[in-house]
Design brief:
This protein is an alpha+beta fold. The protein has helices at about 25-30, 80-95, and strands spanning about 1-5, 10-15, 40-45, 45-55, 55-65, 70-80.
Length: about 100
Amino acid sequence: KFKAKQGKGELSVWSSHNALDQTIPEACQSYIKAPFQPTYKVVKPTWYVFSGIDRGTVIYQKGILQGGIFPTIRFEYPQAEKTTWDPLIARIVNTLRPASGQ
């Protein structure tokens, strides 16, 4: 977990084995807890992404399933810092993608 020196943004990065043999939709849904409802959500055969605002905090998460492993990245930051974080997120999440042929 990385925290911004200024502001209240956080970046979390982790990877886990798919020990529960979850599908991509199941894995995605496991991170969406009420009352949060994403305003953006895409689920593909090997990855998912969702984002939205939960009580003034923007949440953006992307996960990939590859070889039984789920690398995942999650950003959380105040809605007021959106213009600061959005360009950074766009650059970072484009580096997290399935390997060729996945």
